[in-house]
Fold this protein.
Amino acid sequence: MIPRYLANFQLSSLPRIETDVVVIGAGIAGLYTAIKAAEHHRVLMITKKSLLDSNTRYAQGGIAAVISDEDSPEYHREDTLFAGAGLCSEEAVDILVHEGPQGVKSLMELGTQFDEENGELALTKEGAHSQRRILHAHGDATGAEIVRSLLEKAKQHPRIEMWNDHFVIDLVTEGGDCQGALVQKMDGSKLFVHAKATVLCTGGAGQLFRYTTNPDVATADGVAIAYRAGADIRDVEFIQFHPTALCYPGAPRFLISEAVRGEGAYLRNMKGERFMEKYHPQLELAPRDVVARAIVSEMEATKSTFVYLDITHESEDRIKHRFPTIYEFCLQFGLDLAADWIPVAPAAHYFMGGVKTDLSGETSVSRLFACGEVSSTGVHGANRLASNSLSEALVFGDRIAARIRDLDEPAFSAAECTEHRKEPPIQAVVEKRLKLQKVMLRNVGLKRSLEGLNKGIDELKRQLPIFGASLSKIEEYEFANMLTVSLLIAHAAVIREESRGAHYREDFPDRNDSVWRKHIILNRETGIREERMNDA
């Protein structure tokens, strides 16, 4: 059983900080939501490392929005629904495609500088998009540019306070309301932040897997603390593996952007053969789940650990201009993007499921909101369309700020935690973490089966005694969060007996709309339930 709180505390004895809005996390979702909320409220931003540690900063591909006269919200809607494989909320997608362009405009007003050609915004095309609608900055450094501009504004804002190196252990709730957060400082001391509204912007869960494009901070903290607080967790079986992460000795699993294939790169197996025609009519521009599984199939067939990405038929000048970050990174390891085939393999990339929200970003726990990758707004369905994630964060960050303006001031009740934990010796967490990552990769990865999933669950359950330990270090809290969400993912994957989007069951290889066009909801207090699409 997952406990309600990870740490013992007495709220009445803790230092108490008052603010209007507490934003947990520092990517595009956290920064943009904080800036919008600060128009009317005092905002406290909390991040467990630095404000530069987020998935946004590493986003290369860009941001999707209808800008061109040749494009339309209807085209963007169709592409998103198609990629989402029948599980998108049409209402949420409509909101995204119609409000996304205003979000981009707002980013530009806040100082983000997108690439231009001939005095107009430069638009590119990526996998599963029917139109050129992807905006970039500095070629392939879009995320870094967005973080730069938003961080600059947030730091200057008189109503935004920022805390680096503070870890949110849990949310404090009373009577179904979120009252704020229990926070631990670097020195181990704890405090209580009381707020009118709490916004989770904690990012994804890539670190649950041995190979990921995500930074070290992506340990699923937000989903875990929301689950312990009683929030609905939805569709966590859908985890997107990016098809093309660098796979080279001594190099990290660096993401080779979707945009490289969007600009004409080929995928080749170990024999040098292009192979995507065997798997999908859109070839290299097929949806990510299709491409990722095709790559794994080719790796298995040729007994290799990677395939090649080949863009050597494009000019060197064009490659350097369009992909400067990727070009320079590969060069560090002796790989020339303009002359060499680049070895790539799939890696865990994006978490489609998360904390279920309504169309204002509010969760099933009153006054608790979620934005960005930690959330499940209904936009992504079973498989996120490339470059929709940054747009989603803008659109729903704005909606969250608007909803918070309508909240009245909460009554304060000093909830207490009196659970007492024993203090057994804890095996080095770094070993536990590595073991968990290997279990998830082997049993809950790109290809799943009942046998493998049950084996994975059994192995994960052996780590449950950590919840009876007295936890005090950030890496211990992180591991507890990783274990919580790993079990949620594995259980949801067992329940969904079909293959859809990013969830693939070898024992149920077909999509089954008559039975499984529905969401799987997990709740710590009420258990597991299923919601058919017309009920969601």
